[in-house]
Amino acid sequence: MKLIKIDKQSWDEGIEKTKSAYRVFGPVKEKNDHEFKLLEKSELPDLNYQNTRLSPKSIIYPQSQIMFTYSLDENKEDFRIMKEVENVKSPMAIIGIRPCDALSFPIVRRNFDTPEYQDTYWIKAYEATTFVGLACNTACSTCFCTSAGTGPFGEEGLDVLLIADGDDLYAKIITPKGEAFASSAGWTMEAESAVASKIDEMKTTAESSIASSVATDQLKNKTTLELYDAPFWEQEAFACINCGTCTYVCPTCWCFDVQDETYGKSGIRMRNWDSCMFPLFTHHASGHNPRNLKYERVRQRFMHKLKYYVDKYDNGIQCVGCGRCIRFCPVNIDIRKICDKMNSFDPEACACEVTSS
Question: Which one, of 310, 342, 36, lies nearest residue 149 by Cα?
Answer without folding.
Answer: 310
